[in-house]
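Subject: LemA family protein structure
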Amino acid sequence: MLSVGWLIAAVLVAIVLTLWVSFTLTRLDRLHARVDAAQAALDSQLVRRAAALQHVAEMPGSRLPRQQADQLAEVAQHALAPDQRDRPAAENRLGRALRELAGSVALLPAAAVEELSESATRVVIARRFYNDAVRDTRTLRARRMPRMLHLAGYRELPQYFDIDDSSPFDGPTEGEPDPFPLPVTARPEDRTVEEE
């Protein structure tokens, strides 16, 4: 027969385990909700970037060559297609179109360049937030206890969204100061005698 001390210890262990499982389950639910929210934000920023490119391509009075404008419109429409099965490929194609368009930036109105730059920057940020949420969720789900207890249920393991989202429109335009300049570090040869 078990003593009262062992019974109390068993009850305490059961309470601690229950609290730990409950905490982990709650955290896992929150991480999945964070992934869903980040994915929705990323989707909206990708749509915004494609719409900005389509707007530039179909802009009335555009000085872009007709063939280039048609190609840009086609790329943008492909990225905006709702039944897109291979979205990363479509987004990479759109990114390449943006890099090619950078050579014709002088033919675009300043407002269009600003819109493209802002939408490209927002995609970078949204993708970073999404991939961070995916990483945190996958890390928690990879632990032994959540796997053994199937705390994620039947939810699919979230996947990273990897595209080349570097933009030729990033950074300051010509004649505009860099809003985030890199700090200048002193080189050893720049030190004065007093500093030594």
